[in-house]
């Protein structure tokens, strides 16, 4: 008996967490998938009706806007954050004495809640008293910066705040990558008389391909899950011009009482995440087994 | 990285040297501008929170306060309105504390034990279990919101702090397990073997050998979990009710409450209060914070 | 005397892969058993099985007459020294050594007494309060030994304990382990891939390959009478010369003919070997080929060979000549006048010769 116990303790210890994950991740995904096939409204129903919720979803102009916003927001956010993060990382990598302080400054937004970030930028970008008013008070009377209240531009305001929050993190990733490049290769290139910018473009950056991938995955994941920032900065508005799939889902689930729509939009979100993350995770796990 | 020393003896080199110095200045200026970009919102938040509403309306966004007043802070802490209640952030701040502390401790402990099993007591299927857990870190939580709401209702803990703790623990396990697993997997398996020959069992080995080794990863995990849970909004707004809301939800309610005059100084003070705990953690243990961030993204 | 360790018909599979096949080994108290073989041969797995750190698929393991097949490591009365030493990083040296006793609930006075004794034996008293991270490789090695010694077990198990040390330290520690074995009269099972370690330490050697025992015997038996081509090639450095040859019965002896690409075949006559098949592999160690005139005996036969290469190695000089399509090494005295490209008379000591069947690799004589 004691023998048996000794042998099976590790499994028994892991079991509760494993069961919890099975139920609360996989079981719940299954539940949502199931409900997304029903006519659930205020309360979940369990009679499968087919793909009507998805038909409704793809016919909804609001969902269209949300997906379009996700595409614009995601693309801009990822590209700008990576470019900015990489640029700052390279600049910081030039033996700067104050590197520690600067790094701390660039990265602190990552410690903030997106609600705080949204609140701060909402204030900064508000046309009446924020940047617009400030620049006008400098004498540029016609200056306008009213993106937060302009339905066509509000999503770009979200991009600004999101880049501000996450680019420091990308910088940290790249800085760590730059530091792990083999110093001897760089010395060899210097001895060969290769100019610094060529060393970066031909040797260092290509060797950091995995970090680009990591940064992309993390940012894409952040973009798809982005919810708090939009809620705090624009509340999804004006109108629903800054809706993202995450805010759409939330609105359907908790204010519109349309559980079927909420479930189907959540499933589409998950499909998008999976399309990005699964190949990455798979290759990571494969690499580890070899 | 480029460490080329130039001899100033030749006039030509002298010229290049000046070029280098100019380049260096350009570098500092660029870094300075970026620093301003990142610092500006914090600066604006702090100065705005110290101004009176009158000064905000008349002064510039980036000006220092002419007259420092802590009135807005007082209001934000104990008087601002979240909808109909006007108790400030204080009760919600304590909600967040009472929520974050147990959730962090429980999820960290579970992660440590799970990581120990997966990394050091490999058994058939352990890797599959780990992959399944890892995967759980990546799902958009929207996909579990509805069933979780139903379940919390069944369990009778809907809208309560224990309910929120439960949710945060469940969805934190994946990351905490990942952290500890990746840390323990670098420890040679012979250590467990030696301890087994010495007569120690599963828990004894964990307690006497692995836990004392784990301080750095415990710090990383605690900071990561604390930041995640403190800053969470989605679970907070979905699974709480009036009175049990965490601070992020209360902040959003204060800022977006439509009654009365818009008090920007109070909004900013409230935002700083909500951000303070994680900012302090970052200031004190930034190194570990960054390690958590990079460990969470670059799966080793 | 009853065997202290008795392994019978041991099989171990990882899924469909058989990593250990029908292992049968028994040793007496006081033996020093060395398991040797190339990496992946299953020697460390076998040691882990003896320790109870890995389950076996079938067979039995008995220690001192007790069936230990399904007994957990802590109850097998063994101690083990690991390749990485596996010292507990957060414990001082003293705590490392006494941890096992603490777990077993030995009283503090006994712990202190045993610690003192072992620390004296290994001369690690000044290190007792340090952490493993503050020790050199050699010191860690001693602490790991101390942790094993303090147990006073029936069986000491060593898993490549010297492979992480530099060459000089390795030789020192090797003789120290040998001394320890002698002084304690303890029984030891020792895994290594280093055949010199095996030769110098063992009272009994098990040569393994692919999970199968190739030969069990004393170092002298293994060295002089290798059971097959693998053992012949693996044990000894430089390796045994394995030369393809043709055997022809000739009166009461056998004529051995070895082809040479650069001249007439070399012909030797073995007066003892009989019943050899026509194709054989002839095995002769480098030291059994000498310069003519430096080796005497009734089975010594001399022949002229073209020297291809000369390698002085200080105490000896090795010369290489092509025989039977193989580079054959002979170990000559240091002052030899041998020159590359010049023929030299070599003396072949046929009293030491081994013959192998080319197909199966099995020994013939």
UniProtKB/TrEMBL annotation, chain A:
Domain ABC transmembrane type-1 residues, every copy: 67-280
Magnesium found in the keyword field: no
Keywords assigned: Cell membrane, Membrane, Transmembrane, Transmembrane helix, Transport
Membrane topology: Multi-pass membrane protein
InterPro entries tied to this protein: ABC_transporter_permease, MetI-like, MetI-like_sf
Compartments (UniProt record): Cell membrane
Transmembrane residue ranges: 12-34, 70-92, 104-124, 154-178, 199-224, 259-282
PANTHER family linked: ABC TRANSPORTER PERMEASE PROTEIN
UniProt similarity note: Belongs to the binding-protein-dependent transport system permease family.
Protein name stated in the entry: Sugar ABC transporter permease
Organism: Aliiroseovarius salicola
Lineage: Bacteria, Pseudomonadati, Pseudomonadota, Alphaproteobacteria, Rhodobacterales
TrEMBL record, chain B:
Transmembrane spans: 21-44, 97-117, 129-157, 163-184, 205-226, 268-290
UniProt feature coiled coil, ranges: none
Domain ABC transmembrane type-1: 93-285
UniProt entry tagged with the keyword Transmembrane: yes
Keywords assigned: Membrane, Transmembrane, Transmembrane helix, Transport
Entry-linked InterPro entries: MetI-like, MetI-like_sf
A Pfam family of this chain: BPD_transp_1
Cell compartments where the protein resides: Cell membrane
Protein's membrane topology: Multi-pass membrane protein
Organism domain of life: Bacteria
PANTHER family, alphabetized: ABC TRANSPORTER PERMEASE PROTEIN, GLUCOSE IMPORT SYSTEM PERMEASE PROTEIN GLCU
Homology family: Belongs to the binding-protein-dependent transport system permease family.
Protein name: Carbohydrate ABC transporter permease
Organism encoding this protein: Aliiroseovarius salicola
UniProtKB/TrEMBL annotation, chain C:
Domain ABC transporter span(s) in chain numbering: 5-235
Record has Transferase as a keyword: no
One GO molecular-function entry: ATP binding
Highest taxon, organism lineage: Bacteria
Pfam families assigned: ABC_tran, OB_MalK
Gene3D superfamilies assigned to the protein according to its UniProt record, in alphabetical order: 2.40.50.100, Nucleic acid-binding proteins (2.40.50.140), P-loop containing nucleotide triphosphate hydrolases (3.40.50.300)
UniProt entry keywords in alphabetical sequence: ATP-binding, Nucleotide-binding, Transport
CDD domains the record matches: ABC_MalK_N
Coiled-coil region: none
SMART domains in alphabetical order: AAA (SM00382)
Family of this protein: Belongs to the ABC transporter superfamily.
PANTHER family from the UniProt entry: ABC TRANSPORTER ATP-BINDING PROTEIN, MALTODEXTRIN IMPORT ATP-BINDING PROTEIN MSMX
NCBIfam families in alphabetical order: PRK11650.1 (NF008653)
Protein name (Swiss-Prot/TrEMBL): Sn-glycerol-3-phosphate ABC transporter ATP-binding protein UgpC
Lineage of producing organism: Bacteria, Pseudomonadati, Pseudomonadota, Alphaproteobacteria, Rhodobacterales
Gene name in the database record: ugpC
